[in-house]
Known about the structure:
Blueprint: E1 10-16, E2 25-30, E3 33-37, E4 53-56, H1 59-63, E5 68-72, H2 78-81, H3 84-87, E6 95-97, H4 99-111, E7 118-120, E8 126-129, E9 132-139, E10 146-153, E11 156-160, H5 178-186, E12 189-195, H6 208-221, E13 226-229, H7 235-247, E14 251-255, H8 257-268, E15 293-297, H9 307-312, E16 326-329, H10 338-350, E17 354-357, H11 358-361, H12 371-381, E18 383-389, H13 393-405, E19 420-425, E20 428-434, E21 439-443, E22 446-447, H14 452-464, E23 466-474, E24 479-489, H15 498-518, H16 523-542, E25 547-554
Parallel strand pairs: 3-5, 5-6, 6-7, 11-12, 12-18, 13-15, 13-16, 14-15, 16-17, 23-25
Antiparallel strand pairs: 1-2, 1-19, 2-3, 4-21, 8-9, 9-10, 10-11, 19-20, 21-22, 23-24
Helix pairs in contact: 5-12, 6-7, 12-13, 15-16
The structure holds zinc ion (2 copies).
Amino acid sequence: MFKTKKPANVKLTILGGLGEIGKNMMVIENGKDMLLVDAGIMFPEEEMLGIDLVLPDFSYVVKNKERLKAIIITHGHEDHTGALPYLLKEVSAPVYGSKLTLGLIEKKMGEHKLKADLREISSRTKLTVGQFKLSFFEVCHSIPDGLGIIIETLFGLMVHTGDFKFDQTPVDGRPTELQKLTGLGQKEVLLLLSDSTNAEIPGYTLPEKTVGANLLKLFEDARQRIIVATFASHLHRIKQIVDATIKTDRKLAISGRSMVNNVRIASELGYLKIPEEVLVDVAKIEKYPPDKIVVLCTGSQGEPLSALARISSNDHKQVKLHPGDTVIISASPIPGNERSVSRIINQIYRCGAVAHYELISGVHASGHPAQEELKLMINLVKPKYFIPIHGEYRHLKHHAELAKQVGIHPENIFICEDGDVIEFNAYGAKKTGEIPAGDVFVDGLGVGDIGDIVLRDRKQLSKDGVFIVVVAIDKQKAEIITGPDVVSRGFVYVKETKELIDEAIERVEETLAKTAQEGVTDITVLRLRIREDLSKFLYKKTRRRPMVMPIIIEA
Ligand SMILES: [Zn+2]
Ligand SMILES: [Zn+2]
């Protein structure tokens, strides 16, 4: 352990990823210096209308930006990298990650026309940034080149697992580094932060190679074209699809922008080797017999504009689905995407093709550890304190139970959520506070300009439409000059509900008469009163709640 003159606190601040799956980000402060682990995004939930992305609220980092020494990215998934372009517009710090992680980040920064100070690390790197000493261990996950982090702090080691699993026979021969973790257990580990995604699932996660064997079997049985959709970043899966293609003497065509991009980046960086003679242009697949073609595509999450969505709805320029074709969705839907995936599966069956997906064919294995692996991690590292990370509240809760089972003192387990601050000092650890942390919405070019109010409006508009009342009044005499007139969209068909509209207009006149009597002249108050009265009236009459917008013109 190194010494500092002034003993200070070590502080952990959760900015995202706890209490949700997505937008992982945490701040670790060692004395004055600040370190950021991951900078991810979350894809919007269905009720977040028109929102493209959700970012963590990183205003705490921006406020303390001169203390930020480094940003460490554990791996290349969007829920760990996606917020970087937005963050790096406001702070500057070197970004550390493995070769593949940085390759994917560089592409992303390029799309935002930004440059970052990217510094490559590996599991052998030892790094000193400010008062932090960092080392790393390899972790096996559903994207290659993931790293866990060992952070030397004033009060002991902190171990951050990143996303991991313990696959003993990984496709790239790069298992999670057990020997390093065992070594850690011999030292005094202050804190373990570990991946909770699958904390509810008993046993062990299926080895990735099992999926390869299942895929090969399906390839061998297929008599016509095979179309496989998977995550564009799942290079192990893609490698197994390439292998099965070669073994069954087929050619591979690739469709979908992110799939084409990732295969190119991975091939350039040496993470994927596809023999040239195996690849064919997707525009030329018609020249080959159906039993000689595999199409690898995007859309495993049912994304409406993806290659698979287009193929299954007969809207893809080059790939048409025929009866007897085999379609494999080699992924599991991320919570929230189940309906869109289900819609695609229905479409596939409608075309007369055969669909295979996780539920029925074993064509997917998770990249996260199940319960026995989680217990193993805690037993290897033997931390004094434990914080489950990367999960919804229920996952964190189950993970905390597992930690108790393997002997972590219940008082030393913290179930945290976004915004929580945990402080460590010579006497122990405690939750000391909360900072503002929530969702920052990205909508088109705007970042953070859409708040809950705008969202609530969108929700209301989409459900019950809008009801606009225009009235011009003479403020001095407190009387109506013109109107009220009504414009309505998405609420009721105005022509057929003349009676309702007439009554609504009467209501507005009544409200204005009443406010005039009361001597109300403030336009804001007038607007509020009209909105209240009219909303009540419309709800009583129609049981709907359109957005009521009074427009008052003063003359
Ligand atoms: Zn991941
Ligand atoms: Zn993740």
